[in-house]
UniProtKB/TrEMBL annotation:
Membrane topology: Multi-pass membrane protein
Organism, as annotated: Anthoscopus minutus
PROSITE patterns reported in the protein's UniProt record: SSD
Gene Ontology cellular component list: membrane
One Pfam family hit: Patched
SUPFAM superfamilies attached to this UniProt entry: Multidrug efflux transporter AcrB transmembrane domain
N-terminal signal peptide: none
Name of protein: PTHD3 protein
SSD domain ranges (all copies): 1-140
Keyword Ligase part of the UniProt annotation: no
């Protein structure tokens, strides 16, 4: 927002900080418990950031709707109504994500199991911090707005002073407007107006609803068909970078050696006296019998 009072940059930054705290808490707890840290776990913060920012937007939108409906209400009732509207959506999102990743811990692959443990635990911490830490930040930001304070310096915005003798930087940070115009509180956000006045009536039209039902039916049919075409297996080339030496290696292996079938390896789990000639002959005979 352009308003020096309604600007929520610090609020958004605290939402990102909340996700970062969830990642640190999850990683710290898992490392303390001795869960192995693998390279794939390094991708977890991006997933947590996406869900955390989504929860942050839901909380902010619910808070602003509650504050517009109850301008004279106290902070407790505003926060209670915000949680009443936003907490259910945030809780369902978190439950589905946590369930999905904790189910992934049943896999036989240790790297995937570690990734799912780290990420699932991070989702739990993300939910906790959103419901506690970010809620407190919402209240603090509301008190700053009610006190008519600047979004950056938290100084009282005063347009009654003589601004002519002050610098532009002082007016922007301490008074609120470099152009020496009073900073007014903004009304409803333009995005909310768009969805309420234009998008909402458009999608509730009976022909548009019929079209959406048909499109969803086509999407559902395509999804069911796609599920029937899924085959179990993994191409190791898809796990490497495009410019990695692994890709041409597997290409050549498939081109020149695919006709010989899979490799068979023999593992000897006991200590063997390789210096003994009879033992070596026994190993050679074992390999020949396998061939």
């Amino acid at each position: 927002r352009l308003s020096c009072i309604r600007n929520n940059i610090w609020l958004a930054s605290c939402g990102v900080l909340s996700s970062g705290l969830a990642v640190l808490s999850s990683f710290g707890l898992m490392l303390f418990c001795g869960v192995p840290f693998v390279v794939t776990v390094a991708n977890a913060p991006f997933l947590i950031l996406g869900v955390g920012v989504d929860d942050m937007f839901i909380m902010i939108a619910s808070w602003e709707q509650s504050s517009r409906k109850k301008e004279k209400s106290n902070v407790k009732s505003l926060l209670a109504e915000t949680y009443g509207e936003a907490a259910l959506s945030v809780t369902i999102t978190t439950l589905t994500d946590v369930l999905a990743f904790f189910i992934g811990t049943w896999t036989a692959f240790p790297s995937v199991r570690s990734f799912c443990l780290y990420t699932g635990t991070a989702f739990v911490f993300c939910y906790v911090y959103t419901m506690t830490f970010f809620g407190a930040v919402l209240v603090l930001n509301h008190r700053r707005e009610q006190g008519n304070r600047h979004w950056l310096t938290c100084m009282l915005v005063d347009v009654g002073k003589d601004q002519a003798e002050n610098s532009c930087l002082y007016n922007a940070c301490c008074i609120g407007s470099c152009s020496r115009q009073p900073s007014q509180l903004e009304g409803e956000h333009p995005m909310s107006i768009f969805f309420k006045k234009y998008y909402g009536p458009f999608v509730t039209n009976k022909w548009i609803k019929l079209l959406m039902v048909l499109l969803y039916g086509a999407y559902l049919g395509g999804s069911i068909y796609g599920c029937t075409q899924i085959r179990e297996g993994i191409d190791l080339r898809n796990l490497a970078n495009d410019d990695s030496y692994i890709v041409p290696y597997y290409d050549d292996d498939e081109k020149y050696f695919s006709t010989y079938g899979p490799r068979v390896m023999v593992v000897i789990t006991e200590s063997v006296d390789y210096w003994n000639k009879s033992v070596r002959l026994g190993i050679e005979n074992c390999a020949q019998n396998l061939e």
